[in-house]
Design brief:
With 233 residues, the protein is mainly α. The protein contains eleven helices and no strands. The chain has two domains: 63 residues, Arc Repressor Mutant, subunit A, CATH 1.10.10.60; 160 residues, Tetracycline Repressor, domain 2, CATH 1.10.357. The chain is elongated, with a radius of gyration of 21 Å. The chain starts with a helix and ends with a helix. Keywords: DNA-binding, Transcription, Transcription regulation.
Length: 233
């Protein structure tokens, strides 16, 4: 063992870098194999072999194949939730969610992390070709949806209809966000600019003229579904 190896073995930053590199290599290899050979037929052994590591090493990073595909979603969802907390308190909830998503996408998809734009596009393609896996992703996304509901509720806690508004607003956003992702992935090349553009277009259809005042809907708007999320006609 060289002096240099001994020195690096004790440096936390070097160890963290190697772990991150191995984790990303496993994600990249898995996504490529899933797209080329199919998700169901690709084994953990095949993914590990493509990276030059053992099956045991694979399981140090991921408990199963699902997690390789779903990890980018989980990290992006957490980033959106965190960005929502940083938005101005008086900003309309849908506008705040839109801005938070833009911030998270720019930060995560613009880097080399698990949710980089290339990886995120491949994840969408794998999910598109595997309905059962896509269903598991939606089940997992329910946890992110609940976190977004809580984030919206914190912004309008004084509103007597706040729980209902928060639930509907977060779910409208989540649906629009997923449609934007699907639209973007189905129209290559996959770029961050294209993803942000599709998000903007989708949100424009559900958040037009949303007012800053999210007070209780007036009687005249009682029959208008836009009154639920606070949108004006």
């Amino acid at each position: 063992m060289t002096v240099r190896t001994q020195r690096h073995r004790g440096v936390p930053g070097v160890r963290a870098y190697k772990k991150r590199r191995t984790r990303l290599a496993l994600i990249d290899a898995a996504l490529d194999l899933f797209l080329e050979h199919g998700y169901e037929t690709t084994t953990v052994d095949a993914v590990a072999a493509a990276v030059g590591v053992s099956q045991r090493t694979f399981f140090r990073y991921f408990p199963n194949k699902d997690e390789v595909v779903l990890t980018p979603f989980g990290e992006l969802g957490a980033a959106i939730t965190e960005a929502l907390r940083a938005r101005p308190a008086q900003e309309p909830p849908l506008a705040a969610l839109h801005a938070a998503a833009r911030t998270a996408l720019t930060a995560h998809c613009g880097t080399g992390g698990p949710a980089s734009v290339e990886r995120f596009a491949k994840v969408q393609w794998v999910l598109r070709d595997n309905p059962a896996l896509a269903a598991r992703q939606l089940f997992r996304a329910a946890g992110v949806d609940r976190a977004l509901v809580a984030g919206v509720l914190d912004r309008r806690a004084e509103d007597p209809e706040a729980p209902l508004r928060a639930e509907l607003t977060a779910r409208v956003f989540a649906a629009a966000f997923r449609v934007a992702l699907q639209t973007w992935a189905d129209r290559p090349p996959a770029t961050l600019e294209g993803l942000l553009s599709d998000l903007d277009r989708t949100m424009a259809l559900v958040a037009v003229r949303e007012p800053s005042d999210q007070g209780t809907a007036s009687a005249s708007g009682a029959g208008d579904p836009r009154a639920i999320t606070g949108e004006s006609p």
